[in-house]
Amino acid sequence: MTHGIDGHFDLLLDVAIQREYGRRKVIETDYLPDLVAGGVHTVVAAIYIDNKFLPEMGLRKALQQISALHAEADESPDKIMVCKSVSDIETAKRQGKIGFVLSLEGAEPLYNDLSMLRVFYELGVRLLGLVWSRRNFVGDGSHFSPVREGRKGGLTEFGIRVVEEAEAMGIIIDVSHLNDEGFWDLIEVARKPIIASHSNCRTLASSMRNLTDEQIRAIAFTNGVIGINGVNLFVADTDDQADIEHMINHVDHIVKLVGVEHVGLGLDIIEPFMKYDSPNMFIQAGRKDFDVVKGHTKVPELVRALAKRGYKDEAIERILGKNFIRVFKDVWKSKRDEEVEH
Length: 342
What we know:
Layout: E1 5-9, H1 11-20, H2 26-38, E2 42-47, H3 58-75, E3 80-82, H4 86-94, E4 98-105, H5 115-123, E5 125-129, H6 157-169, E6 172-174, H7 180-189, E7 195-196, H8 213-221, E8 225-228, H9 232-235, H10 244-258, E9 263-265, H11 299-308, H12 313-332, H13 335-341
Parallel strand pairs: 1-2, 2-4, 3-4, 4-5, 5-6, 7-8, 8-9
Helix pairs in contact: 1-3
């Protein structure tokens, strides 16, 4: 396997809490065995802030999670590496380490201060999900299912500036959790490839968290990637259909629309973290959420299912990580780097 990348994993929420209880080497103990068994050697580690900490503690909680990852890398230097470039990812793989790339899942830690983006960049953040499924200073999030609310908004003036500054720095913009209005605003202003790190096809599962065919085409037009999500709510509209086969239907749908070059994996494994969820977090959807892919050890099952569906080795390698690597290379070389070169 040339590249095994999970484009979205919320482990830092758990790691930071475990470390508060005095545990050390949490990733090495609790997560590394499964990642190794599944052939995953690069993880996009999402920084997610629970509603109850916002707005006052958003920045602090984000920094705690980043600190936890760096501390874990110091404690397990032969097994874990914080990656800030494609070169780092390749080095980690060559040395037999798991590489971790930081991503903000929602811009809440910035509050309304654009200067904070530079701080997060220097700490290693290389992807930015503009919103989680709620409103912030950047724009509005996409709810899991309809809720009572007033008029929805797109990207704010601050949101436009965040996008432009992030692209100039070399931070990838992630549209997962962004509402439709904000999505199309982003398409107007984005100049670099964008991703949906953990979203599926709305045609196959009707959650607003999934992408319409038009949105899938728009992401592909930027040369971006869509990470297939393994949470039942986004795989199928009924739990009895939510299985790996139906998950691969989403891969098939995207491939037919725009080609295999625009598909990746953003498994969004959630079951280990459900104990931390805010009460009734998914009550809007009226369903109990679960993982269709039961942990990273099951990634080889997904690979076998893709092969059975007719995908050749080259296509599978693209889905498993090569497509994400392409976007990383495209965006992480920032405008400022290009100015230095010239």
